[in-house]
Design goal:
With 276 residues, this protein is an alpha+beta fold. The protein is built from 4 helices and 18 strands. The chain has an 18-stranded mixed beta sheet that branches. The N and C termini lie close together (5 Å).
C-alpha cells in the first residue's frame, strides 16, 4: 500500500501527518505507527497525526506517540495540524476548531509563513512538588496538566542537564502519577531583541522515551510555573532545544491559569509516499 504523508515540524518536534479523508485511524495499529515513525527504516517522527474533517472549520486531530500509544494532546502537533488543515482545505486559515482527546480548541494561522496559534483551555495552576529528591542544581519542581501531565523542573543551566537519564528517572516518579509525566527542564536565559527574556527549555517526553526538540504544552506549563513564582511576566518566550521560540500568553489568577495562548511554528518540511 502506498501512503501519501506530510512531514511537519513544530520547532523541531516532528510528525508524520495524514489526510483523514483518505486514511482512517482504525487502519493504523500501534505496530504500523512505530514502523512509520522509526528514524532508520521509516519516515522518522516523534508522532503520527491523522486529520479528520468533521464539518466546515472543525477538524479532529488523532495523535499517537512514536511508540504507537495514543495521547490526548500535543501542542506542537496542534500548531502543525492548524497549518496543514488550512493547506489541505479542511478548514479556513483565519480560524478553526480543533478537536483533541483533551478538548476542543480554537486555532488559527498567523501570517503567510509557518506560524500558528492555539487558544488552550484554562487549567489548575502548577503545584509545587516535594519529595522528588531534587539535585543541588535543581531549584524547584511543579506539576501541571495542560492536556497531558507535565513536571516542570527549574534548574541553574539546562545545558548541563543529563536529560535522558534524569528525565527518565523523574518521568516515572510516583509523584507524577501512575502514567508518569513529561519532564521539562527550564533555566533563566538572555533577553531577546525586544527586551523580553527567553527561557531555554529541554524536554524528556513520555511515549518517545527520550529528549525531543520541543514541547508546546510543556512550554505552557513551564510559563505558568514561572509566572506563578513571579520570575516572569506574560507574554514570555521559551527557547526550545532546536533553538526556535514558543510564545506563551497566560493569566495566573490564584489557583487557575486562564486566557492561555500558545504560538509557534507549524512548518511543512516535505510531502512523500510510504510503501507499507
Amino acid at each position: 500500500m502506498s501512503v501519501t504523508f506530510y512531514k511537519m515540524s513544530g520547532s523541531g518536534n516532528d510528525f508524520v501527518m495524514l489526510d483523514g479523508r483518505q486514511y482512517r485511524p482504525s487502519h493504523w495499529p500501534a505496530g504500523r505507527i512505530r514502523d512509520v515513525c522509526d528514524r532508520r527504516e521509516g519516515a522518522g517522527a516523534d508522532g503520527l497525526v491523522i486529520l479528520e474533517p468533521v464539518e466546515r472549520s472543525v477538524v479532529r486531530m488523532h495523535f499517537y506517540n512514536c511508540d504507537g500509544s495514543p495521547a490526548a494532546m500535543c501542542g506542537n502537533a496542534a500548531l502543525c495540524s492548524t497549518r496543514l488543515s488550512a493547506r489541505l482545505g479542511l478548514a479556513p486559515a483565519s480560524g478553526m476548531r480543533l478537536i483533541t482527546g483533551a478538548g476542543t480548541f480554537s486555532t488559527r494561522c498567523v501570517g503567510e509563513g509557518a506560524w500558528a496559534e492555539l487558544n488552550l483551555d484554562g487549567f489548575e495552576a502548577p503545584m509545587a512538588i516535594e519529595g522528588l529528591g531534587l539535585l543541588p542544581s535543581e531549584r524547584a519542581a511543579y506539576l501541571a496538566c495542560v492536556g497531558v501531565p507535565h513536571l516542570v523542573v527549574l534548574v541553574d543551566d539546562v545545558d548541563r542537564v543529563e536529560v535522558h537519564g534524569r528525565g527518565g528517572e523523574l518521568r516515572r516518579h510516583p509523584k507524577c502519577g501512575p502514567e508518569g509525566a513529561n519532564v521539562n527542564f527550564v533555566s533563566p536565559g538572555p533577553k531577546g531583541p525586544d527586551g523580553t527574556p527567553h527561557w531555554p527549555m529541554r524536554t524528556y517526553e513520555r511515549g518517545v522515551e527520550g529528549e525531543t526538540l520541543a514541547c508546546g504544552t510543556g512550554a505552557v506549563a513551564a510559563a505558568a510555573a514561572l509566572i506563578a513564582r513571579g520570575e516572569a511576566r506574560s507574554p514570555l518566550v521559551l527557547t526550545t532545544r532546536s533553538g526556535k521560540p514558543l510564545s506563551i500568553r497566560a493569566t495566573v489568577n490564584g489557583t487557575r491559569v486562564e486566557d492561555v495562548w500558545l504560538a509557534g511554528e507549524g512548518r511543512l518540511v516535505y510531502t512523500g509516499e510510504l510503501e507499507l
